[in-house]
Amino acid sequence: MTCEQERAADGILRRSARRVSTIAVIAIAIGTSISLGSNTSRAEEVASTVTWDDQTLALVKSGDATRGSALATQCKACHGRVGLSDAGLMPTLAGMNPLTTYKQLQDFHGYRRPWKDMNQISRLLSPQDMADLAAYWASLPGLGKEPSGDPASPAGKLALEGNADKGIPPCTSCHTAKGNEMGAPPLAGQNAAYIEQQLVAFATGLRHNDLDGQMRDIAGNLTPEDRHAIAIYFSATKP
Ligand code: HEC
Ligand code: HEC
Fold this sequence. Notes:
Layout: H1 3-29, H2 54-61, H3 65-71, H4 76-79, H5 98-109, H6 116-123, H7 127-139, H8 154-161, H9 192-204, H10 214-220, H11 224-235
Helix pairs in contact: 3-7, 5-6, 5-7, 8-11, 9-10, 9-11
The chain binds heme C (2 copies).
């Protein structure tokens, strides 16, 4: 991302963080138990035990795709034989940024991200298994193309430029074709229904494993119509 985009995204995130703490202060001051979903306890809650320190980055880099390929036989019934899922709510894993796969497996393992099947499957995986699986899925062709949708459409503009007035940074400042260093997954080529479902899950706080609540804030600022349109925008890709 450019410096300008970085500053814009940063400003928006700071503003939304301030908004959340103002609401929290007001709620405490009037002594009520206003329910803000899981966002209320964000200050105490640890979103994820994964931090992008040198040790974690080195572990993910050490992933062995050949070993991962053997472990991946247990994933294919759901995620597809070559990691391309055509079932709407099942994510495509082929071409996934390895940092994302690793972090999500750790988060499922530690119940930071709730999903029964994934919580059970990841319980049995060691950190090295997760790195190996991440290397394997990253080695297959899939995600990582360019969206084919019209960049001048409302969804295209939101994805590429954001909407500063509504507190929405450009999605592509973090979600590049290959994902980015913070574990932001590539979105282009992902199933539309899955993208939309995850945006709803972040907006409602059902999914709360994003560091600093950044996706919860952004998704919360999108309308249901925005979430639907943007999911369709990212799902269709150029060949
Ligand atoms: C019983 C079906 C099932 C099996 C088997 C399965 N998964 Fe999943 N997986 C899912 C579903 C469903 C989701 C989406 C969960 C959600 O909506 O939050 C998911 C999500 C994921 C995600 C998150 C992707 C993202 O974009 O955030 C990763 C990574 C993942 N699975 C990896 C694996 C790996 C690796 C294996 C094999 C070791 C595996 N899964 C086996 C059903 C399965
Ligand atoms: C400041 C960086 C940033 C921006 C801007 C951003 N995202 Fe994200 N997004 C992330 C990160 C990091 C994650 C992974 C969160 C985690 O660790 O689970 C994520 C996760 C997601 C996911 C879950 C994908 C999956 O495979 O499970 C979706 C969907 C998503 N973002 C959509 C969007 C959309 C749409 C926009 C623009 C309106 C956007 N994001 C803007 C950083 C960002």
